[in-house]
Design a protein that fits this description.
mainly alpha; 2 domains; two-stranded antiparallel sheet; 4% strand; globular
């Protein structure tokens, strides 16, 4: 049997390889159960809102209907409001540390990565979240998308130390 899932409590000082001296603690069964329940709920929401349908994604990229843009816009709005509330209330993590927003620097790698991500999204009809919902809903081509995403993550992990953006 494999190791119990762990959580990294402090990932501020990751090195180029993504490793850290950070303290890792085992996740409790309650945390794992709640994560599973929230994941299932998220999958149901994605399925019911039809964002896992290839045709919806296809129509979005052809600018045929606003459905996906409205959903993405609501997500951006919720994220913006959440960040505002976190800043205004000076929210803290469960360890008591201040939550800090650190913008990532903009460089050509963002454009290249975004282009690759967008092309994959347009071809497969799914970004990472909906892949699991597609598989769960019985859209078995989602397994091919998942395999492609895993290969892409692996290739990026291999190439990352050599990339200088």
């Amino acid at each position: 049997m494999g190791a119990w899932p762990m959580a990294v409590l402090d990932n501020e000082n990751l090195d180029a390889g993504g490793t850290s001296e950070a303290k890792q603690v085992p996740l409790s069964p309650l945390t794992l159960t709640m994560s599973l329940v929230m994941g299932i709920y998220f999958g149901i929401v994605l399925t019911k809102s039809e964002v896992v349908r290839w045709q919806r994604v296809h129509d979005m990229f052809l600018f045929n209907e606003p459905h996906m843009y409205l959903i993405i816009g609501v997500g951006v709005l919720v994220a913006m409001l959440s960040m505002l509330v976190i800043k205004q209330l000076e929210a803290r993590t469960i360890e008591g540390k201040a939550i800090k927003y650190k913008p990532k620097p903009f460089h050509k790698g963002v454009v290249i990565g975004g282009t690759i991500f967008g092309a994959g999204w347009a071809i497969a009809g799914a970004c990472p979240g909906p892949i699991y919902a597609q598989i769960g809903a019985g859209a078995w081509p989602g397994v091919i998308t998942l395999a492609g995403a895993l290969v892409g993550m692996f290739l990026f992990a291999v190439a990352k130390p050599k990339l200088h953006f």
